[in-house]
Target: RING-type E3 ubiquitin transferase
Amino acid sequence: MENLEKQLICPICLEMFTKPVVILPCQHNLCRKCANDVFQASNPYLPTRSGSLTSGGRFRCPSCRHEVVLDRHGVYGLQRNLLVENIIDMFKQESSSSKPAPERKEETPTCDVHEDEKINIYCVTHGVPTCSMCKVFGAHKDCEVAPISSIYETKKTELSDGIAMMVGNNDRMQGIISQLEEACRAVEENGRRQKTLVCEKFDHLYSILEDKKRQMSQKVTAEQEEKVNYIQGLTRKYGDHLEESCKIVELGIQTMEEPEMALFLQNTKPLLKKIAEASTTAHLDKVERGYENMDHYSVNFKKEGKALRTIDFALDDDDEDEEDEDAEGGTEEGEGAQTVSGGAAVTATSSQPSAPQQISSSPSAAKSAASTLSDNRQMTPKPGAE
Model:
């Protein structure tokens, strides 16, 4: 083993090779760090990076003086000798297993004041271990002391009890941490679920408002189309009457040019009758004043907006979907010009932060706010509306 150890000595540091071990072209081995040191000493003017040369150069082997030429990688371009590294590992294992474990010697600490005196008593007054000389001549001569062995057993018992108490406390703390983590996960899950419910309730409210908007728009559209069709029909009638009048005028002009008096008088009687009939428009309908006005479909959503702004969370879950649907289905909306005003209030009460909360903006509250747009208020035509 000694001969083997001699073969594993680096010729530079004179110690056992330190991995990684590099092999030179002359087949001698060096620690990579030692090879880098020799390389830097032989090439002091080459640029370095992080303490190692990064460009090509040359140096001589310290064992045989053979010139070693390196590429741009420097010593990092040399090949590692994995065989020597494995032999070093095996040698260290054998050396550590063959050497007996050193016996542990119990060393008794000595006094700081009396260096040759071992600490063998315990000062109860100051709570520190000391030596006999300190009790006789030193700073602890007036203090109460006790044998260090008895104090050792007492303090060891106290420390053992303290450790046991801390272990129990740590277990309880770990249990509390686990409960808190579980509570945190539950809060996150419940929060996601409640946010989903809130979104669903508001989506339902949006759908109710969209339905009401569609219904009220259809009423306005229906009267609009009715009035437009009526006015267009009158326009066609007046156009036909105007066309007939123009024809009578042309016929009258032609009659005026008739030179024969007898023939003129003969044609004048029926022409005057036609002129009298064409001059009157009593048989044609007339559009009343304000007929084109559509302001009687006015809306006032002030109360509804106030009710919607009071939507909040409540403790009680008032689920009245079916009752609201029946009430909405049984309400008939009046036909013709109507005015929407007022609304139903949405009752909402805030819950305590720690209590589970339900959404008071249930379909009942949503529909009570939205249905007041046309169902819960009598819509009355304005003066001047048809």
Observations:
- The chain has a mean pLDDT of 76.
- Residues 110-143 form a domain with the Double Stranded RNA Binding Domain fold (CATH 3.30.160.60).
- The radius of gyration is 56 Å.
- The chain is about 50% helix and 10% strand.
